[in-house]
Write a structure and sequence with these properties.
The structure holds two protein chains of two kinds. Chain A is α+β, with helices and mostly antiparallel strands. Chain A contains six helices and six strands; from the N terminus they run E-H-E-E-H-H-E-E-H-H-E-H. Chain A folds into two domains: about 110 residues, 2-Layer Sandwich (Alpha-Beta Plaits), CATH 3.30.70; about 60 residues, 2-Layer Sandwich (Alpha-Beta Plaits). In chain B, about 30% of the residues lie in helices and about 20% in strands. Chain B starts with 17 loop residues before the first strand and ends with a helix. The chains are: A alpha+beta, B alpha/beta. Chain A: Keywords: 4Fe-4S, Iron, Iron-sulfur, Metal-binding.
Chain lengths: ~180, ~750
């Protein structure tokens, strides 16, 4: 798997299609493993999606006393294995992104696994498949690096980016790459 | 059932024992492509799989689309015909139900004439069904009273386009060109919530430096990143557009060569907007002059711009004016008929485009032919095999049908694919009208609020249980596939119409065995009309990812970009409008000091009859709420979560307050997806546009009152019974009355 999940919070429109789609993944038993929240609804409608960062050295796995959280050869951090999980919920407290969740009925944790049944075949996870604003993308590493450079490039062309306070005070001199 | 495999170059996850059936979402006009996962052995619906290769949505779906399959085998589905006896619905067979319908329709038509039976259609159905609704009303029932719920949705856009461009096709360009656009002017369209999968195209253009201008009373998600947010007062779009038109003229942004060659009436338009200086525009719309200037410069300088609008500008008593003025902005800039530029309305209903073209409208026949044109009557009568003299005259618009019920002209109704008990304005009046009907038949697949008024409910099947085509918001004709056999005793709407036609002794005009039979007749019926589908075949749709109408022959490539050489008017030139500004039908005054506007949330579709039943969607958005600016809220002592009573001249509602700075200080917003006591349309104003007959859902004057914290909210909106305690106020029963005051008062 040479692809990465690429998040662009600014693009999020708060539709929560990623959450609905997460439930649809075959291995997810109808439970969503990601979340979308408002930054501050009283101020504006900015939302952000959060999925597992698939950390190289994941806090959830580190604190697991039963060694139940496994990492695949591709680097995907899986949900706790059913046989090993003792239901201590350490992982839910350790994760700085609030990703692992706990199923009290089955007494085990579950978390985002990048739709491993899909991503291991290089098919986009459900959240990235459906995200209507491309806030969540499943792309090649090279494409990701190019996207990051493009950001910088655009800022240089425009001189400055409009901010929340002065966005309408900004006179454009540049129109699209296709402009005459 | 027709299978359709995924494209060979696209990788999809196909689980063992399952197959994918390629179709489209049932909800909005985007008609996003999707695969439905079906169990190979049992045929049961298992889930959804993205359809990465469909060019409009590229696999993307909104939460409604992701969960759409859950409505197909939902436990709430109506499984058998239901007949109301002693106020209670009892299960019945098709024969029993049809007996009752036949007896009542025949009795009422014998006693009160053919027009006493009416048909109210909808456009969340396939083209085949929408086409047949018009034929069913005119041939099987012989009534002139036929109209459809597009009057609450698309009719102002249609009116505006017909007036200026001569042909009403929702978009003059395909969505796939969006990424090459330089400026989007988004007016009254909450794209992120109502057509979320369009966002990807706009963001892609923005990545390349495109500018976004948003005109909306709320800071909608797209306005958050827009270059200019024109936060206008609800109902002042015409003023904004005229101000900007004047700005384009004054700053020499007009493409003079294009206007000279392709537009009529330019000098008159110029003269009519001359008085709309930025100062006056700012005073009427409440938008700062600096913002108007920025927007004008961005739009004026942009070499390729797209004007996008939706219900925000259309659902007003001057919706047609708004549409034709915004369209004129694109015309003055020479944008229509060119690559990556043009004008588009964001069609709200699944088949809002196709459904309005083929004879569901009171004054239209298939192929966008006019019912007042003797040649059109002759042609369509020929296709239908009836005598032209049998063709009924034009009827009245959807909301005016309720006036006819109150007047006693209409005594029976067959309602299909619509839920006006939630979606019409001034609901107390509508509910009373339903109660006044002598006989009321509803076809639906869930027990809607309108069904509860019915004498007979017929179980229609869902979109996934029949073959057919729809036309998406671009004008692209696409294929809907049958995913499973109809559940229980349910039948496709066309089969229901056919059976009633047989009972009315008109069966010989409805000899259809499959939806495809209707499609073939429909192609001939549209031949030569403005919306010509005659060259489109189901095979071509599969091969070409949909075909754009007009497509007059099978070797015609279809028309993705409209008006390349000429417009649809008689002389081929666009008509620039001359508009006298009219204020909204009702606006804030001392007694009703706040402006109410209504709209959608991302989790629900129209009257919510489907989406309120889906677990994920109802969890995410259970009840209506009112969005209030903290400054306005503080003058009422309101906090988030407080209960508020909103009251207009027509009705009242209790909702929870949600405070946000992302809305104007003089405006509140309530979504409209709930019925009965939770329906905001109890409050909305049925002041109609003079041309499109569109009610003014988007503007009305409202009082607010803080209520004690222990005021009960209605917990289960699906089961709140609607008894005789309907708060119907006879004083306010004059349906189309508008409180028009003079403009001076308004602009203060």
């Amino acid at each position: 798997m040479n692809k990465v999940m690429y998040l662009e919070f600014e693009r999020c429109i708060g539709c929560r299609a990623c959450q609905a789609a997460c439930r649809e993944c075959g291995d997810h038993e109808g439970l969503e493993r990601n979340y979308v929240d408002y930054i501050d609804f009283s101020e504006n409608r900015q939302t952000f999606p959060m999925i597992c960062m698939q950390c190289k050295n994941p806090a959830c796995a580190q604190v697991c006393p039963a060694n139940a959280i496994q990492i695949t050869p591709e680097g995907v951090v899986l949900s706790a294995s059913e046989e090993k999980c003792i239901g201590c919920r350490n992982c839910t407290f350790a994760c700085p992104f609030g990703i692992p969740k706990f199923d009290f009925e089955k007494n085990k944790m579950y978390k985002c696994d990048m739709c491993y049944d899909r991503s291991k075949h290089d098919i986009a996870p459900m959240c990235a498949s459906v995200c209507p604003s491309d806030a969540i993308r499943f792309i090649d590493h090279d494409e990701m690096m190019q996207l990051r450079r493009q950001r910088v490039q655009m800022n240089m062309i425009e001189g400055k980016k409009p901010s929340q306070d002065d966005k309408w005070n900004y006179v454009p001199e540049f129109f699209g790459v296709y402009s005459d | 059932m027709s299978d359709f495999l995924t494209s060979p170059e696209v990788q999809n996850l196909i689980k063992p024992g399952e197959k994918l059936i390629t179709t489209h979402c049932c909800y909005c006009g985007m008609q996003c492509g999707m695969h439905i996962r079906v169990d190979e052995k049992t045929g049961a619906v298992k889930g959804v799989e993205p359809r990465y290769d469909f060019p409009v949505n590229k696999g993307k779906l909104c939460p409604k689309g992701v969960t759409a399959y859950q409505t197909i085998e939902h436990p709430d589905r109506i499984m058998t015909p239901l007949i109301k006896r002693n106020g209670k619905f009892e299960k019945a067979t098709w024969e029993e139900a049809l007996d009752v319908i036949e007896a009542n329709f025949k009795r009422i038509q014998r006693e009160h004439g053919k027009d006493a039976v009416s048909v109210f259609g909808g456009v969340s159905m396939t083209n085949e069904k929408c086409y047949l609704v018009g034929k069913y009303a005119r041939v099987a029932l012989g009534t002139r009273f036929i109209d459809y719920n597009g009057r609450f949705c698309m009719s102002s856009a249609a009116g505006g386009f017909l007036k200026t461009l001569g042909i009403d096709r929702g978009a003059t360009l395909p969505w796939t060109e969006f990424e090459h656009v330089d400026t989007f002017f988004v007016a009254g369209s909450n794209i992120a919530e109502c057509h979320p999968t369009t966002t990807q195209h706009i963001w892609k253009a923005k990545d390349k430096g495109a500018k976004i201008i948003v005109a909306d009373p709320r800071e909608i998600p797209m306005a958050r990143v827009a270059d200019v947010h024109l936060d206008l007062k609800p109902g002042t779009d015409a003023a904004l557009a005229m101000g900007l038109l004047n700005f384009l003229v004054e700053h020499d942004y007009v493409d003079q060569a294009y206007v000279d060659e392709r537009c009529d009436n330019y000098e008159e338009l110029k003269a009519s907007v001359r008085d709309w200086t930025l100062e006056r525009t700012s005073e009427v719309t409440g938008v700062a002059i600096e913002k108007l200037e920025k927007a004008g410069h961005i739009y004026g300088k942009s070499p390729r711009s797209v004007m996008l609008f939706a219900r925000g500008v259309e659902q007003q008593s001057k919706g047609v004016d708004n549409v034709s003025l915004y369209t004129s902005m694109a015309l003055l800039r020479g944008m229509i008929g060119k690559f990556a530029s043009g004008v588009a309305t964001m069609t709200g209903q699944g088949n809002g485009q196709g459904g309005r073209e083929h004879g569901q409208k009171a004054d239209l026949l298939p192929g966008y032919r006019k019912l007042t044109d003797p040649k059109a009557i002759e042609y369509v009568s020929g296709v239908w095999g009836i005598d032209p003299s049998e063709m009924p005259k034009p009827g009245v618009s959807a909301f005016e049908m309720f006036d006819e019920i109150q007047a006693g002209t209409i005594r029976a109704m067959h309602l299909m694919c619509s839920n006006p008990a939630v979606s019409a304005p001034n609901l107390p009046y509508v509910w009373d009208s339903f109660n006044k009907l002598d006989f009321f038949v509803v076809s639906d697949f869930f027990m809607s609020e309108s069904c509860e008024f019915a004498d007979v409910v017929l179980p229609a099947c869902s979109w996934a249980e029949d073959e057919g085509t729809t036309t998406n918001l671009e004008g692209r004709v696409i294929r809907i596939r049958k995913v499973r056999e109809p559940l229980g005793d349910s039948l496709p709407d066309w089969e229901i119409m056919k059976r009633i036609a047989e009972r009315m002794g008109r069966g010989q005009y409805f000899p259809y065995e499959t939806a495809r039979d209707i499609w073939e007749e429909f192609r001939i019926a549209t031949k030569g009309g403005a919306a010509d589908y005659s060259g489109i075949t189901w095979e071509r749709i599969d091969d070409e990812y949909g075909v754009f109408w007009p497509c007059p022959s099978e070797n015609h490539p279809g028309t993705p970009t409209m008006f390349k050489e000429r417009f649809g008017t008689a002389n081929g030139k666009a008509n620039l409008p001359v508009v006298t500004y009219r204020p909204a039908g009702e606006y804030a005054n001392e007694e009703y000091p706040v402006t109410l506007t209504t709209g959608r949330v991302v989790f629900h579709y129209l009257s919510g009859n489907q989406t309120r039943r889906v677990d994920f969607l109802s969890t995410m958005s259970k009840l209506p709420f009112v969005e209030i600016h903290p400054e306005l809220a503080s003058s009422y002592g309101l906090q988030t979560g407080d209960k508020v009573e909103l009251r207009t001249r027509r009705g009242s509602i209790v909702v929870e307050a949600r405070l946000t700075k992302a809305i104007r200080k003089d405006t509140v917003f309530v979504p409209y997806h709930w019925g009965k006591e939770l329906a905001i349309n109890q409050l909305t104003n049925p002041c109609l546009d003079p041309m499109s007959r569109m009610p003014e859902f988007k503007v009305c004057a409202v009082q607010m009152k803080k209520l004690p914290a222990n005021t009960p909210l209605h917990i289960n909106p699906l089961t709140v019974p609607l008894g005789s305690s309907v708060p119907f106020m006879a004083d306010h029963a004059i349906a189309t009355s508008c409180h028009v005051m003079d403009e001076e008062v308004h602009t203060k």
